[in-house]
Protein backbone atom coordinates (compact mmCIF):
# COMPACT_ATOMS: atom_id res chain seq x y z
CA UNK A 1 0.00 0.00 0.00
CA UNK A 2 1.24 3.48 -0.89
CA UNK A 3 1.49 5.74 2.17
CA UNK A 4 -0.95 8.62 1.91
CA UNK A 5 -0.07 11.79 3.73
CA UNK A 6 -1.00 15.45 4.02
CA UNK A 7 1.01 18.31 5.53
CA UNK A 8 -0.74 21.54 6.50
CA UNK A 9 0.46 24.73 8.09
CA UNK A 10 -2.09 26.69 10.07
CA UNK A 11 -1.64 29.88 12.09
CA UNK A 12 -2.75 31.03 15.48
CA UNK A 13 -5.35 33.79 15.69
CA UNK A 14 -6.05 36.70 17.98
CA UNK A 15 -9.65 37.33 18.97
CA UNK A 16 -10.94 40.90 19.10
CA UNK A 17 -14.44 39.82 20.18
CA UNK A 18 -13.75 37.01 22.65
CA UNK A 19 -15.23 33.54 22.83
CA UNK A 20 -15.61 32.88 26.54
CA UNK A 21 -18.30 30.46 27.65
CA UNK A 22 -19.59 27.48 25.71
CA UNK A 23 -22.44 25.00 25.49
CA UNK A 24 -22.27 21.26 24.72
CA UNK A 25 -20.12 20.22 21.72
CA UNK A 26 -18.05 23.38 21.66
CA UNK A 27 -20.98 25.58 20.69
CA UNK A 28 -20.08 29.12 21.74
CA UNK A 29 -22.27 31.22 24.01
CA UNK A 30 -21.59 34.26 21.85
CA UNK A 31 -20.11 35.10 18.45
CA UNK A 32 -16.43 36.00 18.18
CA UNK A 33 -14.22 37.69 15.60
CA UNK A 34 -10.48 37.23 15.21
CA UNK A 35 -7.56 38.18 13.03
CA UNK A 36 -5.61 35.30 11.55
CA UNK A 37 -1.89 35.56 12.32
CA UNK A 38 0.99 34.64 10.05
CA UNK A 39 4.26 33.98 11.89
CA UNK A 40 2.87 31.91 14.76
CA UNK A 41 1.82 28.64 13.18
CA UNK A 42 1.75 24.87 13.55
CA UNK A 43 2.82 22.49 10.80
CA UNK A 44 1.28 19.03 10.96
CA UNK A 45 1.66 15.93 8.82
CA UNK A 46 -0.73 13.03 9.05
CA UNK A 47 0.41 9.82 7.34
CA UNK A 48 -1.85 6.84 6.89
CA UNK A 49 0.07 3.59 7.43
CA UNK A 50 -1.02 -0.07 7.27
CA UNK A 51 -2.72 -1.14 10.47
CA UNK A 52 -1.03 -3.66 12.73
CA UNK A 53 -4.25 -5.32 13.87
CA UNK A 54 -7.63 -5.89 12.27
CA UNK A 55 -9.65 -4.41 15.15
CA UNK A 56 -11.53 -1.09 14.86
CA UNK A 57 -9.40 0.38 17.63
CA UNK A 58 -7.52 3.57 16.74
CA UNK A 59 -3.81 3.19 16.08
CA UNK A 60 -1.95 6.45 16.61
CA UNK A 61 1.62 7.62 16.99
CA UNK A 62 2.25 11.27 17.76
CA UNK A 63 5.54 13.16 17.49
CA UNK A 64 5.99 16.76 18.59
CA UNK A 65 9.24 18.37 17.42
CA UNK A 66 10.32 14.92 16.17
CA UNK A 67 9.97 13.40 19.66
CA UNK A 68 7.25 10.97 20.59
CA UNK A 69 4.82 12.74 22.94
CA UNK A 70 2.59 10.52 25.04
CA UNK A 71 0.60 13.26 26.80
CA UNK A 72 -0.47 14.85 23.50
CA UNK A 73 -1.12 11.41 22.04
CA UNK A 74 -3.69 10.71 24.75
CA UNK A 75 -5.48 14.00 24.05
CA UNK A 76 -5.51 13.21 20.36
CA UNK A 77 -6.83 9.70 20.95
CA UNK A 78 -9.83 11.27 22.71
CA UNK A 79 -10.31 13.69 19.86
CA UNK A 80 -10.07 11.03 17.15
CA UNK A 81 -12.39 8.64 18.97
CA UNK A 82 -14.98 11.40 19.23
CA UNK A 83 -14.88 11.97 15.45
CA UNK A 84 -14.31 8.38 14.31
CA UNK A 85 -17.95 8.11 13.22
CA UNK A 86 -17.45 11.05 10.83
CA UNK A 87 -14.22 9.77 9.25
CA UNK A 88 -14.88 6.11 8.56
CA UNK A 89 -11.39 5.57 7.13
CA UNK A 90 -9.86 6.10 10.59
CA UNK A 91 -10.58 2.49 11.48
CA UNK A 92 -8.80 1.16 8.39
CA UNK A 93 -5.39 2.81 8.82
CA UNK A 94 -2.80 3.54 11.45
CA UNK A 95 -2.08 7.26 11.91
CA UNK A 96 1.40 8.72 12.28
CA UNK A 97 1.29 12.40 13.13
CA UNK A 98 4.21 14.80 13.21
CA UNK A 99 3.68 18.32 14.50
CA UNK A 100 5.84 21.35 15.25
CA UNK A 101 5.22 25.00 16.11
CA UNK A 102 7.01 28.02 14.68
CA UNK A 103 6.91 29.65 18.12
CA UNK A 104 8.60 28.30 21.24
CA UNK A 105 6.50 25.95 23.37
CA UNK A 106 7.19 28.09 26.43
CA UNK A 107 6.21 31.44 24.96
CA UNK A 108 2.85 31.63 26.66
CA UNK A 109 1.17 31.55 23.24
CA UNK A 110 -1.69 29.08 23.12
CA UNK A 111 -1.08 26.55 20.40
CA UNK A 112 -4.45 24.81 20.42
CA UNK A 113 -5.89 27.05 17.67
CA UNK A 114 -3.01 26.50 15.25
CA UNK A 115 -2.56 22.83 16.07
CA UNK A 116 -6.18 21.70 15.83
CA UNK A 117 -6.78 23.70 12.66
CA UNK A 118 -3.66 22.19 11.01
CA UNK A 119 -4.75 18.73 12.15
CA UNK A 120 -8.33 19.11 10.89
CA UNK A 121 -7.14 20.50 7.55
CA UNK A 122 -4.78 17.54 7.06
CA UNK A 123 -7.52 15.09 8.03
CA UNK A 124 -10.10 16.62 5.69
CA UNK A 125 -7.47 16.66 2.93
CA UNK A 126 -6.80 12.92 3.38
CA UNK A 127 -10.52 12.26 3.25
CA UNK A 128 -10.67 13.87 -0.23
CA UNK A 129 -7.53 12.03 -1.39
CA UNK A 130 -9.08 8.69 -0.37
CA UNK A 131 -12.38 9.52 -2.01
CA UNK A 132 -10.97 10.70 -5.32
CA UNK A 133 -7.87 8.49 -5.41
CA UNK A 134 -5.87 11.57 -6.42
CA UNK A 135 -3.38 14.00 -4.87
CA UNK A 136 -5.13 17.20 -3.84
CA UNK A 137 -4.27 20.84 -4.45
CA UNK A 138 -4.29 22.96 -1.29
CA UNK A 139 -5.40 25.96 -3.29
CA UNK A 140 -8.42 24.13 -4.66
CA UNK A 141 -9.36 22.84 -1.22
CA UNK A 142 -9.27 26.22 0.52
CA UNK A 143 -11.35 27.72 -2.26
CA UNK A 144 -13.99 25.04 -1.78
CA UNK A 145 -16.55 26.43 0.69
CA UNK A 146 -17.86 22.98 1.62
CA UNK A 147 -14.39 21.66 2.36
CA UNK A 148 -13.51 24.70 4.47
CA UNK A 149 -16.72 24.39 6.42
CA UNK A 150 -15.97 20.76 7.23
CA UNK A 151 -12.38 21.58 8.23
CA UNK A 152 -13.70 24.39 10.45
CA UNK A 153 -16.29 22.17 12.13
CA UNK A 154 -13.64 19.59 13.07
CA UNK A 155 -11.15 22.25 14.14
CA UNK A 156 -13.86 23.56 16.48
CA UNK A 157 -14.42 20.15 18.01
CA UNK A 158 -10.68 20.06 18.85
CA UNK A 159 -10.55 23.59 20.25
CA UNK A 160 -13.20 26.27 19.77
CA UNK A 161 -10.93 29.10 18.67
CA UNK A 162 -9.20 26.79 16.14
CA UNK A 163 -12.18 26.95 13.80
CA UNK A 164 -11.32 30.61 13.06
CA UNK A 165 -7.68 30.00 12.08
CA UNK A 166 -8.26 28.57 8.59
CA UNK A 167 -9.39 31.79 6.94
CA UNK A 168 -7.40 34.66 5.39
CA UNK A 169 -7.05 37.85 7.45
CA UNK A 170 -10.13 37.62 9.69
CA UNK A 171 -12.93 35.33 10.61
CA UNK A 172 -16.22 35.20 12.51
CA UNK A 173 -17.52 32.23 14.46
CA UNK A 174 -20.93 32.09 16.11
CA UNK A 175 -24.36 33.23 14.98
CA UNK A 176 -24.74 37.00 14.83
CA UNK A 177 -27.38 39.13 13.14
CA UNK A 178 -24.58 41.52 12.17
CA UNK A 179 -22.72 38.95 10.03
CA UNK A 180 -24.48 37.22 7.17
CA UNK A 181 -23.81 33.49 7.00
CA UNK A 182 -22.36 33.31 10.52
CA UNK A 183 -22.93 30.03 12.30
CA UNK A 184 -22.33 28.42 15.70
CA UNK A 185 -20.88 25.24 14.20
CA UNK A 186 -18.17 26.70 12.01
CA UNK A 187 -16.38 29.93 11.28
CA UNK A 188 -16.55 31.92 8.06
CA UNK A 189 -13.95 34.15 6.44
CA UNK A 190 -14.37 37.87 7.06
CA UNK A 191 -11.90 39.38 4.60
CA UNK A 192 -14.73 41.07 2.69
CA UNK A 193 -15.72 43.03 5.80
CA UNK A 194 -12.31 44.65 6.22
CA UNK A 195 -11.17 48.08 5.13
CA UNK A 196 -7.80 47.65 3.38
CA UNK A 197 -5.92 49.08 6.37
CA UNK A 198 -7.16 46.24 8.56
CA UNK A 199 -5.84 43.64 6.14
CA UNK A 200 -2.32 44.70 7.07
CA UNK A 201 -2.97 45.01 10.81
CA UNK A 202 0.08 44.20 12.95
CA UNK A 203 0.12 42.30 16.24
CA UNK A 204 3.26 42.52 18.37
CA UNK A 205 3.01 40.04 21.21
CA UNK A 206 4.70 41.19 24.40
CA UNK A 207 5.66 38.13 26.45
CA UNK A 208 4.97 39.19 30.03
CA UNK A 209 5.43 35.59 31.17
CA UNK A 210 6.01 32.28 29.47
CA UNK A 211 4.74 30.20 32.40
CA UNK A 212 2.10 27.54 31.86
CA UNK A 213 -1.44 28.93 32.00
CA UNK A 214 -2.86 29.08 35.55
CA UNK A 215 -6.20 27.87 34.31
CA UNK A 216 -6.99 25.92 31.15
CA UNK A 217 -9.42 27.42 28.63
CA UNK A 218 -11.72 24.48 29.28
CA UNK A 219 -11.98 25.32 32.98
CA UNK A 220 -12.19 29.06 32.22
CA UNK A 221 -15.13 28.54 29.85
CA UNK A 222 -16.90 26.30 32.36
CA UNK A 223 -16.66 28.96 35.08
CA UNK A 224 -18.95 31.16 33.01
CA UNK A 225 -21.79 28.79 33.98
CA UNK A 226 -21.98 30.14 37.51
CA UNK A 227 -20.91 33.69 36.66
CA UNK A 228 -23.65 36.18 37.66
CA UNK A 229 -22.66 38.49 34.79
CA UNK A 230 -22.76 35.78 32.11
CA UNK A 231 -25.95 36.86 30.33
CA UNK A 232 -24.97 40.52 30.31
CA UNK A 233 -21.61 39.47 28.85
CA UNK A 234 -23.15 37.46 26.01
CA UNK A 235 -25.37 40.42 25.16
CA UNK A 236 -22.38 42.76 25.22
CA UNK A 237 -20.43 40.49 22.83
CA UNK A 238 -23.27 40.69 20.27
CA UNK A 239 -23.36 44.48 20.56
CA UNK A 240 -19.57 44.83 20.39
CA UNK A 241 -19.43 42.60 17.32
CA UNK A 242 -22.11 44.61 15.54
CA UNK A 243 -20.22 47.83 16.26
CA UNK A 244 -16.89 46.30 15.33
CA UNK A 245 -18.14 45.30 11.89
CA UNK A 246 -18.88 48.99 11.21
CA UNK A 247 -15.44 50.12 12.43
CA UNK A 248 -13.66 47.42 10.39
CA UNK A 249 -15.50 48.41 7.24
CA UNK A 250 -14.81 52.12 7.68
CA UNK A 251 -11.17 51.74 8.71
CA UNK A 252 -12.01 53.42 12.03
CA UNK A 253 -9.01 52.53 14.25
CA UNK A 254 -10.21 54.52 17.23
CA UNK A 255 -13.53 52.73 17.48
CA UNK A 256 -11.85 49.40 16.72
CA UNK A 257 -9.34 49.99 19.53
CA UNK A 258 -11.99 50.99 22.05
CA UNK A 259 -13.89 47.76 21.38
CA UNK A 260 -10.74 45.60 21.42
CA UNK A 261 -9.64 46.97 24.80
CA UNK A 262 -13.15 46.70 26.24
CA UNK A 263 -13.31 43.02 25.22
CA UNK A 264 -9.88 42.28 26.73
CA UNK A 265 -10.74 43.96 30.03
CA UNK A 266 -14.12 42.23 30.12
CA UNK A 267 -12.51 38.81 29.62
CA UNK A 268 -10.19 39.37 32.56
CA UNK A 269 -12.92 40.93 34.71
CA UNK A 270 -15.05 37.84 34.10
CA UNK A 271 -12.23 35.64 35.32
CA UNK A 272 -11.66 37.77 38.38
CA UNK A 273 -15.30 37.50 39.42
CA UNK A 274 -15.68 33.80 38.65
CA UNK A 275 -15.84 31.33 41.50
CA UNK A 276 -13.05 30.32 42.03
CA UNK A 277 -11.57 33.59 40.88
CA UNK A 278 -8.41 33.93 38.77
CA UNK A 279 -6.10 36.84 38.11
CA UNK A 280 -4.32 36.07 34.86
CA UNK A 281 -2.57 39.41 34.38
CA UNK A 282 0.65 40.08 36.24
CA UNK A 283 2.22 43.34 37.41
CA UNK A 284 4.04 43.73 34.08
CA UNK A 285 0.79 43.34 32.15
CA UNK A 286 -0.67 46.26 34.11
CA UNK A 287 2.40 48.42 33.52
CA UNK A 288 2.32 47.63 29.81
CA UNK A 289 -1.34 48.64 29.54
CA UNK A 290 -0.69 51.90 31.33
CA UNK A 291 2.31 52.64 29.17
CA UNK A 292 0.39 51.89 25.93
CA UNK A 293 -2.46 54.19 26.95
CA UNK A 294 -0.07 57.01 27.91
CA UNK A 295 1.90 56.66 24.68
CA UNK A 296 -1.28 56.69 22.59
CA UNK A 297 -2.53 59.78 24.37
CA UNK A 298 0.69 61.74 23.98
CA UNK A 299 1.78 60.57 20.50
CA UNK A 300 -1.64 60.15 18.86
CA UNK A 301 -0.32 56.90 17.36
CA UNK A 302 -3.28 54.49 16.97
CA UNK A 303 -1.91 51.60 18.98
CA UNK A 304 -4.27 49.48 21.07
CA UNK A 305 -4.04 46.26 23.04
CA UNK A 306 -5.84 43.03 23.57
CA UNK A 307 -5.21 40.10 25.91
CA UNK A 308 -5.82 36.38 25.75
CA UNK A 309 -6.53 34.29 28.82
CA UNK A 310 -3.04 35.00 30.15
CA UNK A 311 -0.62 37.83 31.00
CA UNK A 312 0.81 38.53 27.52
CA UNK A 313 -0.21 41.74 25.78
CA UNK A 314 -0.98 41.97 22.06
CA UNK A 315 -0.20 45.38 20.56
CA UNK A 316 -2.53 46.05 17.62
CA UNK A 317 -1.71 48.80 15.14
CA UNK A 318 -1.79 49.81 11.46
CA UNK A 319 1.26 48.78 9.43
CA UNK A 320 1.84 52.45 8.52
CA UNK A 321 2.81 53.06 12.18
CA UNK A 322 5.11 50.07 12.50
CA UNK A 323 8.30 52.07 12.87
CA UNK A 324 6.93 54.35 15.60
CA UNK A 325 5.31 51.50 17.51
CA UNK A 326 8.43 49.34 17.39
CA UNK A 327 10.57 52.21 18.66
CA UNK A 328 8.13 52.70 21.53
CA UNK A 329 7.99 48.96 22.22
CA UNK A 330 11.79 48.61 22.24
CA UNK A 331 12.26 51.64 24.40
CA UNK A 332 9.43 51.32 26.92
CA UNK A 333 7.95 47.85 26.79
CA UNK A 334 10.77 45.38 26.15
CA UNK A 335 12.05 45.90 29.71
CA UNK A 336 8.68 44.62 30.97
CA UNK A 337 8.86 41.49 28.79
CA UNK A 338 10.39 38.26 30.04
CA UNK A 339 13.97 38.31 28.73
CA UNK A 340 12.89 41.21 26.50
CA UNK A 341 10.86 38.81 24.36
CA UNK A 342 8.38 40.05 21.77
CA UNK A 343 6.96 38.29 18.71
CA UNK A 344 6.08 40.56 15.82
CA UNK A 345 3.23 39.15 13.79
CA UNK A 346 0.64 40.40 11.29
CA UNK A 347 -2.57 39.30 9.57
CA UNK A 348 -1.94 36.38 7.23
CA UNK A 349 -3.53 34.13 4.66
CA UNK A 350 -4.83 31.29 6.83
CA UNK A 351 -4.22 27.56 6.52
CA UNK A 352 -2.07 26.36 3.63
CA UNK A 353 -1.09 22.98 2.33
CA UNK A 354 2.65 22.35 2.45
CA UNK A 355 2.66 19.01 0.67
C1 LIG B 1 -9.60 33.74 25.54
O1 LIG B 1 -10.47 27.95 22.04
O2 LIG B 1 -8.68 27.76 23.77
O3 LIG B 1 -8.55 32.87 23.60
O4 LIG B 1 -12.64 25.56 23.05
O5 LIG B 1 -11.85 24.96 25.34
O6 LIG B 1 -10.27 24.79 23.40
P1 LIG B 1 -11.46 25.50 24.00
O7 LIG B 1 -11.01 27.00 24.29
P2 LIG B 1 -10.11 27.98 23.45
O8 LIG B 1 -10.58 29.39 24.10
C2 LIG B 1 -10.08 30.58 23.62
C3 LIG B 1 -10.42 31.68 24.54
C4 LIG B 1 -9.79 33.02 24.22
C5 LIG B 1 -10.72 33.88 23.37
C6 LIG B 1 -10.81 33.56 21.90
O9 LIG B 1 -9.84 33.10 21.29
O10 LIG B 1 -11.89 33.85 21.35
| Largest β-sheet summary | 8 strands, mixed
In round numbers, the mean pLDDT is 96
| Percent in helix | 25-40%
| β-sheet strand percentage | 15-25%
The overall strand count is 14
Structural class: alpha+beta
- The number of helices is 10
Uncertain spans: none
Ligand kinds: ligand DP6
Radius of gyration: 20 Å
Could you tell me how far the N terminus lies from the C terminus, measured between alpha carbons in angstroms? 19 Å
Q: What's the shape?
A: globular
Element pattern in H and E: EEEEEEHEHHHEEHEHHHHEEHEE
Helix-strand layout with pairing:
Elements: E1 4-17, E2 22-23, E3 27-28, E4 32-50, E5 59-64, E6 67-68, H1 70-83, E7 93-101, H2 112-132, H3 138-143, H4 145-158, E8 170-173, E9 187-189, H5 196-199, E10 202-206, H6 217-223, H7 230-250, H8 253-272, H9 283-299, E11 304-307, E12 313-317, H10 322-333, E13 342-346, E14 352-353
Parallel strand pairs: 5-7
Antiparallel strand pairs: 1-4, 1-14, 2-3, 4-7, 4-8, 5-6, 8-9, 10-12, 10-13, 11-12
Helix pairs in contact: 2-4, 7-8
Structural account:
The protein is α+β, with helices and mostly antiparallel strands and 355 residues long. It is 38% helix and 23% strand. The chain has ten helices and 14 strands. It has helices spanning 70-83, 112-132, 138-143, 145-158, 196-199, 217-223, 230-250, 253-272, 283-299, 322-333, and strands at 4-17, 22-23, 27-28, 32-50, 59-64, 67-68, 93-101, 170-173, 187-189, 202-206, 304-307, 313-317, 342-346, 352-353. The strands form three sheets. Strands 1, 4, 5, 6, 7, 8, 9 and 14 form an eight-stranded mixed sheet that branches. The longest helix has 21 residues, at 112-132. The mean pLDDT is 96. Residues 15, 18-20, 26, 32, 110, 112, 159-161, 217-218, 221, 267, 308-309 line the site of ligand DP6.
Amino acid sequence: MKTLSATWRSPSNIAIIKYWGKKQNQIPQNPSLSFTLNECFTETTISLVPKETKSDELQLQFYFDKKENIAFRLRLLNFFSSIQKDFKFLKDYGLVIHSANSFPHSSGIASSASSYSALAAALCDLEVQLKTGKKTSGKVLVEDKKWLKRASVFSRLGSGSACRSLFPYASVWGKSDAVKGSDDEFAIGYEQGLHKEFKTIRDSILIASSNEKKVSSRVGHSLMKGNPYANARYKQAHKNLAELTVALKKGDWEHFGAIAENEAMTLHALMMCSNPSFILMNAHTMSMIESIRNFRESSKVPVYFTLDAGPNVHLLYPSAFQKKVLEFADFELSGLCEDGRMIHDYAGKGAQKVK
